Input
Amino acid sequence: MRDRLEELAEEGLAALGSAATEEDLRRVEQDYLGRHGRITAVLRQLGGLPPAERPAVGRLANEIKERLARELEARLEILRRSRLEAELAGEGFDPTLPGPPARAGSLHPIERVRRELEDLFRSMGYAVAGGPEVETEEHNFDALNIPPDHPAREGHDTLWIEGGDRERLCMRTHTSPVQVRALRRHGVPLRVVAPGRVFRQETQDATHDHTFHQMEGLVVDRGVGVPHMLHAMRSLLSGLFGRELQTRLRPGYFPFVEPGFELDARCPFCKSGCSVCKGSTWIELMPGGLVHPEVLRASGVDPEDYSGFAFGLGLSRIAMLRYGIDDIRWMMSGDLRFLEQFDA
Ligand code: PHE
Output
């Protein structure tokens, strides 16, 4: 039986050597290595051998199969190469043919809303400002009239950064520190929006994530008051929803504004209560207020001369409303099944 196997190996190698096409090669493969091939046929008789001899013969058969398989691969590769060379050299290859189409990406829903709002505010004379995501304690809290022992700090579950040698550093918990940065840098009068990522140590659920997006608005000039703030907020809303929504102001508390407000809008999706407005027909959209004199002072602006308003828009939340996304965790998931739904 060993001899028969060796013979088959010789024959098989010779057959592979004389095969001229891929088809020929595949036929030899079937003939020798296939389930009904010659080597298998020999192996079927293994049972007729004395038990002591079986393992050695089995091993030999496997080794021969491998040898043939290796030779087959090598021959296939040679054929492939020469076909490619012939194509490249001859008429068969047309380098001007288009390749497979590249898949176009799409804009993330937050990115879309951000761009739209930036365009809207630019058209109203605002500049776009920014600041770092790793922020100093001074910008994120102190200059915003939130001293260390202030209870408002507890509302911001802050991710502190270890090892800032001169100043305490944190992941910014809101975009409001950009108010201070922009004022210190550019002075007054000033009109800016500042979109960006913010971070909080939150337990994730459908409406909370540790990373989300906000957009800060800030206007400081002589004689700026609540009506100016309302106008800016309302323009923003009609820009977003394509029509005027009825709004209402409630008092709201933030240490860096005085007075402070919460702006609600009539639910854009229903008349009598739905799951988005939780049956109330109002949705809480945006906090804001007049910039606190202490914040102006800390930013190098004289509050006797100048006043301003600020608002903070939750970009993540707006994008969710806009596109009917019911779980904020999709936003940062990077899941293509989610992202592909926003193809242009
Ligand atoms: N920074 C506040 C927050 O993240 C929102 C805010 C911005 C409130 C501007 C008032 C004015 O909770």
Remarks:
- The chain has two domains: 2-88, 109-342.
- The mean pLDDT is 92.
- The CA atoms of residues 82 and 88 lie 10 Å apart.
- Residues 174, 176, 254, 257, 287-289, 310-312 surround phenylalanine (CB under 6 Å).
